[in-house]
Amino acid sequence: MSSAHQKHQRYIIRRFPPFVDDDMILRHERLRLLIVFIWALLIFAVTVLGALTCDYFLQEPLFYFTVLMVLFVVARAIYRYTHEWPEGLRMRWSYWHEIELSMATYRLKILGYYHRKIDRHLGRFPRDATSEAQMRRYYHLRGVVLSLLFATAYGIFAILLAVCDENAYTQVLLLYVLAVASVCVLYRLAKLHLIELPQVLVLYQRPEFAADMLFADDERIPFAQPVATYETTSRATRV
Fold first, then answer.
1. pLDDT at residue 165 is higher than 50
2. How far apart are CA 87 and CA 85, in angstroms?
3. Count of other CB atoms within 10 angstroms of residue 185
4. What are the transmembrane regions (predicted)?
5. pLDDT tens for residues 87-106?
6. First-to-final CA distance of the chain
7. Residue 217: is it exposed, middle or buried by C-beta count within 10 angstroms (0-12/13-18/19+)?
């Protein structure tokens, strides 16, 4: 198996876990595409406000950078939905079975990725002392609070940008950057709470990842085993 094929396998498996239902991933991929379009529309809205407020705004490098960023993210999301997801739907279980039959060091690369992903999101919760409902409630409350905070910030920055003086050019750029940053945070929160966390909770219940300790070094030291305690004795040299 070539290294390029192995890299492609890992790429598909990491983005489309075989342990998650097809219907669930399909909903998430459609939702991901919708989130990207909403994100692009919100950035487009403040870009129009900036252009209407200041005549020279469309000549700024910041404007071209934002346009390129939005086009890249939208194109990447469309490519993922139209090309990568169909391949993941067809081949993810086949790729996973190939990985299971491969060498242990290669197999642990994938397991280690899932271990770290689960630990990053749910590592703060003791496995035996926290229910799934409690974890969902915690993230739901945190997601609602942060989303309201940054949505309010976006609205305030957009209003200030619309009423800003045309001659206050630095203020126009600052308000525009803050509004775009708020949208990007909302985009990240939406992906985290609506897509990533539901999939992580599914993986969390899988017996393959039911370890009490999730090691960050499982790729670099794949065969590390606990060593029994032992004592050493030293002989004193008598003169």
1. yes
2. 5
3. 17
4. 33-58, 64-82, 144-163, 169-189
5. 999 988 888 888 878 777 77
6. 64
7. exposed
